[in-house]
Amino acid sequence: MTHEKNTKEHQSVVQHANGASLEEINNTVVMPSKGGFWRKLAAYSGPGVLVAVGYMDPGNWITSIAGGAQYAYALLSVILISSIVAMLLQSMSAKLGIVTGMDLAQATRKATSKPVGFILWIITELAIMATDIAEVIGGAIALHLLFGMPLIVGVLITALDVMLLLLLSKVGFRKIEAIVATLIATIFIVFLYEVILASPEWGPMLKGFIPDPQIALQPGMLLLALGIVGATVMPHNLYLHSSIIQARQYKRTAAGKREAIKFSTIDSNIQLTIAMVVNCLLLILGAAMFYGVESDLGRFVELYNALSDNKIVGAVASPILSTLFAVALLASGQNSTITGTLSGQIVMEGFIKMKIPMWLRRVVTRLLAIIPVIIMVVVYNGQDAKVEELLIYTQVFLSVALPFAIIPLTIFTSSKKMMGEFANPKWVKYVAWFIAIVLTILNVYLIYSTFQ
């Protein structure tokens, strides 16, 4: 009898999911019918891992390392604040998907005209492309460091990572989450160990978590701060989270939704805390090794070389540390490949209702991403420092694109009509609007300063 009831409920949920975001994974992860807090948390854990990946991609690496190299520990406060902002926004995103059964792209398209939806789709696609460019550059440089490949060859090889995605798509969504979590743990351990070796100054480091007014007053500092914000609060992650959370077979009742919101928020906050720590470790590493050094340091190649240079790191310097760094960089890029493709599919289906095979989506996205990188490599004759500069600007673009995702998310999750009893409390609503307004003002100022 219970089995029949569960079967009927499952069938009704599947019917509800028809035309849903990422239909191939929607409602596929079985949840325990009984169990305590930890068992339920374990079952809901996974979407937060995939979201956190976007906060630890090569774009984060270069902005955090450059921030530490140029301004010591001052930008740690930016990482802290933007991580807290990310936790709030991601919880709102997951809640939207759980309560409405729509992802952010679908909800936005439903609330706007076709032309507006198309424009928002283009902006979001460009943000995803900017993320993909960061992955291409990070992967190419990692291959160059590990195997001595010319950058142009590494860039072309990254175009083949579509095969990795095709293989992972065969093993099941839950296993993909486990693989990504393992790679994240590897990255965390590598950088924690390397920061310990770098012996940072604890006083200035702790002071760096207190916001400094100079960040808003110095254009160069503001540029990197916005790059960190763009790399930390990822616009495409808001679309991603609202979709993949629906892979869980939670009950589509008020009580079931309430439980799903609770555990998905905990999952997300845990994973984003880990991502924040990784980003702080990267900035601390850049500051401890490169701040005040009169050289073009703070880049991937220089950091790689420094880890095996006993004049910088000391007696513990070792080629093994350099290799670990390059492996972590490669793992970071490949991790982001998975989530970038899923996000692209979500926004394409949601905004313009167009469905294409995932492998074709991956090929098109990657080809569009490698073109500007190839141009940079050719123009600057393979100079990795010049190519890495493109990474910083891709992260700034992500920051510029962010309000176009935050504003609809805030409107929808604050709407009693859409969310009912799950609508944002007033304090969440006001904080979210404050975030959207401040980011918009800062971005307008940044663009004005750039042209000036």
TrEMBL record:
Recorded topology in the membrane = Multi-pass membrane protein
Could you cite one Gene Ontology molecular function of this protein? manganese ion transmembrane transporter activity
Is this entry keyworded Membrane?
Answer: yes
Q: Which GO terms describe its cellular component?
A: plasma membrane
- Report the Pfam families cross-referenced here: Nramp
Where is it mostly found? membrane
Physiological role: H(+)-stimulated, divalent metal cation uptake system.
Q: What is this protein called?
A: Divalent metal cation transporter MntH
Native organism taxonomy: Bacteria, Bacillati, Bacillota, Bacilli, Bacillales
